[in-house]
Design a protein that fits this description.
The structure is a homodimer. By secondary structure, the first copy, chain A, is α/β, with parallel strands linked by helices. The first copy, chain A, is built from 10 helices and 11 strands. The radius of gyration of chain A is 19 Å and the shape is globular. Chains A and B meet through helix 5, helix 7 and strand 6 of A and helix 5, helix 7 and strand 6 of B.
Chain lengths: 279, 279
């Protein structure tokens, strides 16, 4: 069994990205919009700011009061859409309930939608066209590629059909010529599917949901879960037992998680380059 | 074994749609853009015109010479986007090679994109939001629903990952709580997957590609193939032998095919209603 070490890969990738960024003539610009003051959001935005700063990005954090209206938020997003110094815009989730978050995300220009959550980037991804792809799926593919794990022809079973992970990841794997099965909370006899997986992805949000019996000998196991319990982090996979059967497995923490913020920076760099190409 | 009779269902559905259309205050408008004079395109457009006329739609067929440029085509699409009498616009494929067909399709307003081929409608479909869904996948779901075939919890195996059929159909089935496996030309040991299917969809484009040994006893078999040979039509499924094992099966012709043009008309009606709601 070999660990898929996201923390290590992330460092390597950051250094590579940094040297690409240094060769640019202009600063790469990233804007994060926050509404309200959610505790977890503060932490996540802090991580983004820290990495953006390390890479020498121009970073804006726009924080608005919960009382902001849909219309005012749209105006703020429009300003950033039209701001030439900004290459990437993200709206930090969750938004207060009175804000239409789908609408907000779709106000972001398709060329600055570095979370890949707008309809246009999702549609491009489905069509197999070049797109800004959401960060966690992109990080998973990067992890596999970096460890030389073949994707083509493999049976990939994904548990969880969220728009952040499961669905875009299914598209990415299909484009890479894997055969993909997308399972979810309404799948009957889940183990029947997971036991067939050459590559198994767990994105469920339940501590140790994937047990040893559900995994094929020699499978590659990717754990997207981040479940907090008594200030400790647990994955969706029962790591201690599943790791005995897996050929490769991501730890939690230190597997998929570290890749995600890196991919946001990579998307912002790509958006920077692409927008200048299109001019 | 019971036949899934698309020809019969289509008639029933057309009559239902006709009575809904008659209750509207305005005409439903559909525009078909053709570039050049492809033989098959002429036939398909003729079928669309015939059904549109039967339903009392306002129908425009805009035919352009092969020499039209990307820019001129964009202008023509824009005119139709701004034409209040037009609810649905389709660009008949194939387009001449010098025209960027992806770009052309994406010039169509998302609210008039009744083939559901633009990025925005594909993205909405992936997000599980209300969208204009491409016609063949929609027709398949209608067929299953009409025969009372349960989708939730079923294992659906789709062979073929095209943007017209396989990929949008995978989204629709996932939204309906099926567990979906998407296979394609690069799938290794295809029969291993197809034999597991409760509902098997063949969208390959090869005559009698799906044989008896590849199908589970009692499976529901949907044949999207239309393969011409010596002026006869053949499906992707070896009907004579597979029908012995299937619980339900679509014939070719007379199964999925007839539903497709109907669904285009249904999408145009829906686009008409939706656009008035949004005003």
């Amino acid at each position: 069994m070999e660990l898929l070490n996201g923390k290590e890969l992330r460092e390597k990738k950051i250094e590579e990205l940094k040297s690409k960024v240094e060769r640019l003539n202009e600063l790469v610009g990233l804007a994060v919009i926050q509404v309200g003051s959610d505790e977890a959001s503060n932490v996540y935005i802090g991580q983004k700011e820290k990495l953006a700063t390390r890479l020498g990005y121009y970073f804006i954090h726009k924080k608005f009061d919960e009382s902001i209206t849909d219309e005012e938020l749209k105006e703020e997003i429009d300003k950033l859409n039209n701001n030439e110094q900004i290459d990437g815009i993200i709206v930090q989730m969750p938004l207060p309930k009175h804000i239409d978050s789908v609408k907000a995300v779709n106000e972001i220009s398709e060329y600055k939608d570095v979370d890949g959550l707008g309809f246009i980037n999702a549609g491009k991804l489905m069509h197999g066209e070049e797109a800004l792809v959401s960060c966690t799926p992109k990080g998973i593919i990067d992890l596999l590629d970096n460890y030389g794990i073949e994707i083509e022809g493999k049976h990939v079973v994904i548990v969880g059909r969220s728009i952040l992970v499961g669905k875009p990841l299914a598209c990415l794997f299909t484009t890479r010529n894997a055969t993909v099965t997308l399972c979810h909370s309404r799948t009957i006899d889940l183990a029947k599917y997971t036991r067939e997986a050459d590559i198994l992805v767990a994105a469920v949000g339940k501590k140790h949901f994937i047990t040893e019996e559900m995994v094929k000998e020699g499978a590659v196991v990717i754990d997207v879960g981040i479940n907090r319990e008594d200030k400790k982090l647990y994955g969706d996979v029962d790591f201690d037992n599943v790791s005995k059967k897996a050929s490769y497995i991501t730890p939690v923490p230190g597997g998929v998680g570290p890749m995600t913020v890196y991919e946001l920076m990579d998307n912002t760099y790509e958006a920077h380059v692409l927008r200048r190409k299109l001019k």
